[in-house]
Write a structure and sequence with these properties.
The chain is mostly helical. The chain has two domains: 1-62; 68-105, no CATH class. The chain has five helices and two strands, in the order αββαααα. A hairpin with a 2-residue loop joins strand 1 (14-15) and strand 2 (18-19). 2% of the residues are buried. Residues 23-32 have low confidence and may be disordered.
């Protein structure tokens, strides 16, 4: 168990409370503040994507099999194909479980 925890911390920057802030490069802004209120101007980074995906899976106890589901892959592919602004997309993300409930009821 200790090795797994150390691996998540050292290799993926995931702590017991979620992601650990990591500067992308010396002098760059922390990942959490990169987006601000503008459209992100970052280049896709496989390592960052892996870390964020693994953090979401581990912190939320998501079954590893969920990434194989067609509906999950369609969602990610849709987001990749979108040409929406960051602010538009961030306003669309649900803020609470009540939002999801309301969307389903609608």
């Amino acid at each position: 168990m200790k090795n797994m925890i150390e691996h998540l911390r050292d290799a993926h920057h995931i702590g017991k409370d979620g992601p650990i802030s990591v500067a992308l490069e010396k002098g760059q802004v922390l990942l959490e503040t990169v987006f601000g209120k503008t459209r992100p101007q970052i280049i896709f980074n496989r390592d960052v994507f892996h870390s964020l995906l693994l953090c979401w899976i581990v912190v939320n106890n998501i079954s590893f099999l969920k990434i194989e589901q067609h509906s999950f892959r369609v969602l990610l592919n849709y987001l990749l194909a979108c040409n929406a602004s960051y602010t538009e997309m961030s306003r669309t993300l649900p803020n609470s479980s009540n939002t999801i409930k309301n969307w389903i009821l609608e």
